[in-house]
Amino acid sequence: MKAAEAAIVHADRTARAFALTSALWFALATSFGMLAAGYLIAPDFLANVEYIHFGRVRPMHVNAVLFGFVTPGLLAAAFYFVPRLLRTPLFSESLGVFSACFWNAALAAGLAGVSLGYSQGREYAELPWAADLLIIAAFGLVIANLLLTVRRRTEPVLYVSIWYAAAAVVLTACTYALGNVVWKPDTGALKGIPDAILLWFYGHNVFGLLLSPLALGVAYYVLPIATRSPLYSHTLSLLGFWSLIVVYTHIGTHHLLQTPVPTWLKTISIVDSVAMVIPVMVFLINIWYTVKGKLGEIHADIGAKFVFTGTIYYFFVNIQGSMMALPDVQRITHYNNWVVGHAHIGVLGFAGVTALGGLYFILPRITGRPLFSRFLADLQYWLVLIGITGFAVVLTVVGLIQGQAWYNGETLYRTLPEIQPYYVLRLSLGLLILAGAYLGLYNVLRSLYFPRGGARCA
């Protein structure tokens, strides 16, 4: 290997480690998801294998997507752009690689615990107590590396992507500890309504204070470079940042409008849910005006194409989310597959597609070579795009069927035959996402370690 190429690889070892982590867990997470979808069609499907029955494989799928695929994918891009925006090397590549390895070990231990039946049984907070401590420690390692890099920067101006990346990891380490009630190892939960309020403060902020800031930071970095355009407005970028931090933190209670939560807290959650249009539209106006008239450049760069598509998903998930928080709408949409479809648009459609874009944008730059296969990346793009969009449409339709039936007093057993064909279609669309995940894993592996021509990159 040439000395210059070796220097590039050495300088981006952390980004490489998190990129590989993301690609691997995307394949595993979608595999778990396919098992869960299979149970909805055939409830006895592998039901006698206790380690992977629905009650265990579903939280394994959710946590693998959140903390295995999407977060490391976005962190890979962050560990690439933070040193470059700050004009200083990463504080410690060795610490970064260790943090990636530790991250994988922590998540694997947590999922193994869930598979063995050790679970807190709380949405997005299912991992057992010991795994929670490991996850918090993993965040601590990432925080230390990023903030110490910021501390020794030579660039005096902090570009907005730095703000988003730093805020995401620092705030999530705090909310993760709170939401998982780590000070009560015996139960991992409070009692009654206070626990529900705290849980959904955390559960919604996994998306709002972790995935969203990281994804927005990636978009603010990738799209101006890919289109060779200056950012439309740095003022708008900071307005979007602070409005996101202020508004998003209070909306989790809109999941509890049908419960005896204090009315004032419900009101705040509804108002702020609707007000989410402010940070979202500020970001979209800023980034879309930045790339205005440059769709050709976006199409030419596969990473930018993924990221730009993620911004479109961001628009739809915000409109849907604000609307769902309205009590009259929620009477139909809550406690059914509408919410599941909404979550997939946000996590997979917005944050996940943006993470894939970040990976494909940085891979040629950290290896010094083109992607192993642009064709495979494009194929993955269409498989994921069709799969996620179809998935969301199907689940939205199913949710409306369920919501209307239950609202009108229809019994459950009469509703199930109506939605069974949609579950089959859901599984079929999931196969597209699964195929895209494994194609992506192959492409990332070949791009990092086994490039064309047989040359191997250590």
Describe the structure.
The protein is 77% helix and 0% strand. 50% of the residues are buried. It is globular, with a radius of gyration of 21 Å. Helix 8 packs antiparallel against helix 10, helix 10 (277-290) packs antiparallel against helix 12 and helix 15 packs antiparallel against helix 16. It has a single domain, classed as Up-down Bundle (Cytochrome C Oxidase, Chain A). The protein has helices at residues 3-11, 13-41, 54-86, 93-115, 129-151, 160-179, 192-227, 234-248, 263-275, 277-290, 295-300, 302-324, 327-333, 337-367, 374-407, 412-448. By secondary structure, the protein is an all-alpha fold. Residues 1-9 and 454-458 have low confidence and may be disordered. The protein has 16 helices and no strands.
The proportion of residues forming helix, as a percent range, comes to: over 70%
Radius of gyration: 21 Å
Number of strands: 0
How many separate structural domains? 1
Structural class: mainly alpha
CATH class, please?
Mainly Alpha
Strand content: under 5%
CATH architecture classification name: Up-down Bundle
Main β sheet profile: none
CATH topology: Cytochrome C Oxidase, Chain A
Short description:
It contains 16 helices and no strands. It has 458 residues and is an all-alpha fold.
